[in-house]
Amino acid sequence: MKITKICCIGAGYVGGPTMAVIAQKCPHIQVTVVDLNEQRIKLWNDPDVNNIPIYEPGLSEVVAEARGRNLFFSTDVDKAIDEAEMIFISVNTPTKTYGSGKGLAADLKYIELCARQIARVSKTNKIVVEKSTLPVRTAEAIKSILHNTGNGVKFQILSNPEFLAEGTAVEDLFHPDRVLIGGETNAEGEQAIQALVEVYANWVPKDKILTTNVWSSELSKLVANAFLAQRVSSINAISELCEKTGANVNEVAKAIGMDSRIGPKFLKASVGFGGSCFQKDILNLVYIAKSYGLHEVADYWEQVIIMNDHQKNRFAKNIVTTLYNTVADKQITFLGWAFKKDTNDTRESAAIYVADNLLFEQANIVVFDPKVSYAQILSDLTYLGSRTEAENKEHITVASDPYEACKGAHAIALLTEWDEFKTYDWERIYAQMNKPAFVFDGRNLLDKALLTRIGFKYQAIGS
Ligand code: UDX
Ligand code: ADP
């Protein structure tokens, strides 16, 4: 089966970049990305390609090449479903905030709505591909909805988890470590798997395209993220020990990372991991383990989250303690709000939780992030529910210039590892701050020797 038309439901951080790259690499396939969010689609179609709603290095170039040729963004979901032979589901699956599984399980209501819409609209056979991160056995649920339409249309469901990391999404899509495709282990399933293999084979070497059964594919995604997050929590646990013992976590990370069995990646101590996947996927894993009565397994993985929460809280607490046990009415400047550099995504960013802690202590926070808007920052904080938006507004503001942001500050907290922070004129920043001028480097990004020489009281993680 040769695919000529693809539809992708969800024009977010996963659907947008993935479809842009598929369209660029497969000019013979028409790719339509649809979303209910009209504003988002409007921005994807903005004549100035720099205004697309997602910031990712290299993405606007890819969109510029393919858009209007074989890449389209639309709000007409039904039409795109109807025309496509293959439909990707890339909608958001946040952690449930209500009912059973609250705070742990993934909320599948958006997925279910998609499945029902596909069932209602389809007049010809379709391959449905789960792209969103999903709990194991979601394909079963989708299948059950699709197979009970009674209109004779046949559906094959594939799991094709996304492994791209934000900030390097385009590079990750161009040169993936692997592409994973799970499907049913019968002739039709095999055919559907091959159809998707052929799409990726336009640019990915075949030996990097793995095919498995659906459940292995679904579980592999959760486990990959759990392992990555576990490495970050492991090194963060050691960072606290380093601070007490006089060891330096960067040196420890380098020393252990040179062991080829351990490897050097994902050993960077930080203020804590964020992003839309790590916490959600581990919570999912914990929920699944609990639901099978595997309490030791659940507790083991839950500890990765507990450690991460501890790391964010102790970073905030240390700021308060160091500033003579009070930050009330003091100005703390945040450099960075995004959950990592090179993205405008703020979901689960450590900055949100550090800010929340400091706002409880009545600090005044000024934020500078090269890509994140004030509206986003307010919405992140208000979503936590600790105080009203009006109260948040009173104590947190943004500056459009880093020097403005740091003027009059008692302390700077560096929360995101944006490269540009390294290149600032730190003498100038020092001159305009309250003294003693503190820097809490939550990413071990800045040059300690330089900052100390200038006069800053500099503290990093794990040393
Ligand atoms: C992750 C996975 O890497 C990706 O494969 C999956 O598809 C989605 O989830 P992402 O969340 O976009 O990607 O970014 P990632 O680079 O994994 O970083 C996650 C968080 O961990 C960030 O907050 C980052 O700053 C933090 N981190 C990462 C560390 O604190 N230290 C490290 O050494 C690595
Ligand atoms: P992710 O990081 O998984 O891509 P995002 O929140 O960035 O998550 O993107 C998911 C997108 O899916 C959002 O833009 C949302 O509007 C869209 N969406 C959710 N449900 C539907 C639906 N039923 N039909 C179309 N789009 C949907």
Overview of the molecule:
This protein has 2 domains: 5-204, Rossmann fold (3-Layer(aba) Sandwich); 306-460, 3-Layer(aba) Sandwich (Rossmann fold), CATH 3.40.50. It is 44% helix and 14% strand. The chain has helices spanning 15-25, 38-44, 59-66, 77-83, 109-121, 138-147, 169-174, 187-200, 214-245, 249-257, 278-291, 295-322, 350-360, 374-384, 389-395, 402-406, 426-431, 448-454; strands at residues 5-9, 30-34, 71-74, 86-89, 126-130, 155-159, 179-183, 209-213, 331-335, 364-368, 396-398, 411-414, 438-441, 457-460. It contains 18 helices and 14 strands. Bound molecules: uridine-5'-diphosphate-xylopyranose and adenosine-5'-diphosphate (ADP).
Write the layout of secondary structure elements.
Elements: E1 5-9, H1 15-25, E2 30-34, H2 38-44, H3 59-66, E3 71-74, H4 77-83, E4 86-89, H5 109-121, E5 126-130, H6 138-147, E6 155-159, H7 169-174, E7 179-183, H8 187-200, E8 209-213, H9 214-245, H10 249-257, H11 278-291, H12 295-322, E9 331-335, H13 350-360, E10 364-368, H14 374-384, H15 389-395, E11 396-398, H16 402-406, E12 411-414, H17 426-431, E13 438-441, H18 448-454, E14 457-460
Parallel strand pairs: 1-2, 1-4, 2-3, 4-5, 5-6, 7-8, 9-10, 9-12, 10-11, 12-13, 13-14
Helix pairs in contact: 1-3, 5-6, 9-11, 9-12, 11-12, 12-13, 13-14
